[in-house]
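Our consortium's second objective concerns turning raw sequence data into structural hypotheses that experimental partners can test. To show how far this objective has progressed, the report includes one record in full. It was chosen at random from the queue rather than selected for favorable results. The single chain below, 91 residues long, was entered without modification.
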Amino acid sequence: MGKQVLRAGTSVAANYRAVCRARSRAEFISKVGVTVEEADETVFWLELLVETGIVPKDRMQGLLAEANELLAILAASQRTARAGGTGKMTQ
């Protein structure tokens, strides 16, 4: 499970970098969608570590809260872009 958290978590960072380099709104929406999926998967693995008792809840709370906050931010960016809102699309 630790390897899965590492893979999903680092994938969020790599995919976010790709989001920042999107050349069009459509590409931005597509890439941010992948980033949202990876962030959600990371949250899943963190929750599973707690639910299985591998990591105590009190040790995971801060990290899990931050992961959920990042997921919420990314999902909000995705919704805004889909709605045609003004987002930063310049480099």
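The partners drew two points from this record. The radius of gyration is 15 Å. The chain has one domain: 2-82. Both points have been shared with the crystallography group to help prioritize constructs.
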